[in-house]
Amino acid sequence: MPTASLSDDLPPQNLHPLREYQAPELPEPYYDRYEPDIPIAIDFGSLSVRIGLTNSEQPSNVFPNLVSKHRERKTGYNLTLVGNDLFRESVHYPTLRSGAKSPFDGLLITNWDYVESILDYSLEHLSVTSENGCLNNPIIMSEPPAATFGYRKGMYEMMFEAYQAPKVVFGIDSLFSFYANSKKKDGVVVSIGNNLTHVIPVVKGKGILLNSKRIDWGCEQELQFLQKALALKYPYFPTRLNQSHTSNIIQDHAYVSPNYAEELATYLDLDNLEKKDVVIQVPVEAAAEKAKKTEEELTRQAERRKEQGKRLQEQAQKKRLETIAQKEKEFAYYSELQEAILGLSKTEAERRVIAEEFENVEDLHKYVDGLQKAIRKFYNGDEEEKEEEVDPAAAWPLADVSDSELNEEDIKEKRKQKLLKSNYDARMRIKEEKRRAEEEKIQYDKDQQEWRARDLEDWCTAKRFELAQNISLYRKRSKIMEAMKDRKSLAAQQRMKNIAELANEKATGNGAGKKRRRNAGPTATIDNDPTDTFGTNDADWNAYRDIDKASLEDEQERTNSEILRLEEELLEHDPNFHHEDTFAVQETFDWKNLVLHKFIHGPRQSLTVAMQTEGHDADELLNNPEVIRRNHQLHVNVERIRVPEIYFQPHIAGVDQAGITELIQNILERNSDKNFEVGGQLRAFIENIFLTGGGSLLPNFEERIRLDLRSLLPSGAPLHVYKAKDPQIDPWRGMQKWSFTDEAEQSYVTKQEYEEYGPEYIKEHGLGNVCLKDF
């Protein structure tokens, strides 16, 4: 393994295997204490089924609410498996697991044949016997709050018509759980179910359903959200995650954050991430690691890298030769231009030079002098030739003599001397400019030193602001230059528009330009049109800057030089400005500074990136067992708190509803007597806030609700938040406990009442739904 793949002095990260659902090793037990006339309690949830006779304190059978059907090809025998049996038999019939289905589709039952198969399976394992062909036990069955008429109608038909049960009663699972756990009759029930979350106030042992609240979010939506989040995080992950995988990830690693915003702000800090990042390893078969390379192979690899470096050097040298060749061509061309403008008037010379995209004649001389120095430096090295002192009158005596006093040969010599003299003058001006620049720099350094001595903090603030402005300008210009590469971008289209407009006005003579030239007379041309005033205003030449990429590059270089100068000053004098704060470091790829890298790969460097940096071949990366193993890893970090946080902030998942704490607050403030005194309803509510349902098993759930409510209540309020002893089994225990009460006996709907009044008939009780037929 390459050394770059290992983090400095850090132990290997703990790997957690990706768990599948594991069915119990023993088959589903058969109940041996069956008695007729004893009520059968059925907690028929969308995720799992819990069933048992109420003469036992525990449900005799608990299994997933799944059915799978298989047809044996050889014998033609149809096999229907329910619950854990289909997972055990999937070893022999692999299609059973993939073909497993629930009778529920979201909140509704859509396959009543599956319901019948599940009930047949359940009653068989309860060892139900009958001499009259009927089910002789009363049925207590759970249902969701505000259960639809279709749900109750289907269950009535199943119990009374298919099984001939003597009587049936329905109740809400979360209220049964409250009945099993709470010693008080008043309170607030928070039920985190598989599809929905409910908050139900309970007064005198009766659920007030008209004041209950609901969030369209539960465990199933939680699993789907995590599955989509991981698919977005790892779009090319080689293994597809199913709901069983994501369910185990949430159960094993997710938790509710007591302070979500504060923890999220520091979650991806390296030290914090090292503790909280969870690495989940998906099973993968990787080829055995190849034997270590021999010295000969290592030598060949080093030679290949050396050859690659040599090729790069040759390419760089070739590029430099091409550049200097281009500069020599430009020097020859612009030297001829210098000679050509010597015979022109000052105005004509300026126009000719501006047409070549120079600001003035002096700018041309300066550019030619720069080319000459660059060429001389390339051939002579970094040594600069000293400018010899020259007496212009002695060196170029003909330069200032009138042409009328010279013959033809002297005029030609005069032109050469004028060119040499103009180049000399340009060099002298550059030298003078350098001298003035040095003097200005000395004065600038002196002013800056006085400023720092007077107020260092103000100086640092001003320099940081100036640096930020230059960096912003640099990035903005970089975006424009990058956009120009795309011909469909707005910047590229605007550039082409400017080019077209300039070409149209100066070449084709359309519009006002054509009109001006007609008025100028028959001898007017595009070069001598007296009515063409383009260029007299300095702003006219900005159009060339809009179409010239080279000018943008020059400005970018100047801005970069200014950034470097400011950073150098700040590094020297600002105690709070460090190398890590420089623009170059910020723009350099450093995985420790990249939030996306830490989010995807955790607190360690990506092995693939490390090996690529070391120069390993693509084939070596593709076949490296360690790379393959790491490519089958999931880093779960922010998701550990983000997914559970949706219960408190549903907008994270795009659900336009209030969170659990807000719903409880709404019930306390609007649906109570607001009396904090002993005996008051509000006091009774806050003294008994009860959590139930599988979603409440997440760590810190009750602590989060307690902290949120504590911030809303007066100091010293007797707040008590607690969780069911077993949130998944307690609904059944509540049904078993309730079955022995007089209220239960009076709440059954008999088969005769069903046949007389129809499936819409129900009897209200404190733990069930209410009749809404009058509304």
TrEMBL record:
Residues 525-534 have a biased composition (Polar residues). InterPro entries: Actin (IPR004000), ATPase_NBD (IPR043129). The keyword rRNA-binding does not apply. Keywords: Coiled coil. The keyword Coiled coil applies. SMART domains: ACTIN. Residues 420-454 form a coiled coil. Residues 1-21, 291-319, 505-534 are annotated as: Disordered. Belongs to the actin family. PANTHER family: ACTIN. This is Actin-related protein 5. It comes from Australozyma saopauloensis.
